[in-house]
Amino acid sequence: MTGASTETTGRDPDDPDTRPESMPPGFVIWLWKQARRVVVFVIGSTVLLIGIAMVVLPGPAFIVIPLGLAILATEFVWAKDWLRYARRHLENLSVRAAKARQGTKGSPREID
Predict the structure, then answer these.
(1) What is the pLDDT of residues 21-37, one digit of tens each?
(2) What angle, rounded to 10 degrees, do the helices at 77-102 and 61-73 form?
């Protein structure tokens, strides 16, 4: 009698082919995107914090901080804005350094 209940419905709850979908595909995609954002946030913020610590500790902070921002920028617009800001200021600083090597002095307000 116990076997008759599964035979009458025609579905075996343990068989993955006959089990009804418990989650709609849209929810699975949303969940995947949120999980990815969390992983990117954890990895990117960890790299960024290590880079910030390298400002006072020995290490290449000027490489690690942009790397952390680049990781975060794959998912977050605010990190992309910070990375763009840092890149712009680094380019201005390199122009000023090139002018200083050539002997011409750039104005101190060029970095803004």
Answers:
(1) 576 778 888 899 999 99
(2) 150
Sequence-ordered list of residues with C-beta below 8 angstroms from that of 49, at least 6 positions apart, any chain: 68
Other CB atoms within 10 Å distance of the CB of residue 90: 13
Residue 9 tokens read as 């419905």
Task: Give the pLDDT confidence of 36-45 residue by residue, as tens digits.
Answer: 999 999 999 9
Distance CA 11, CA 1 (A): 16
Is residue 96 within 8 Å of 106, Cβ to Cβ? yes
Instruction: Report how far apart, in Å, the C-alpha atoms of 104 and of each of 6, 88, 90, 95, 98 are.
Output: 88, 21, 19, 11, 9
Q: How many Å apart are CA 82 and CA 65, to the nearest integer?
A: 11
Task: State the Cα–Cα distance between residues 112 and 104, nearest whole angstrom.
Answer: 19
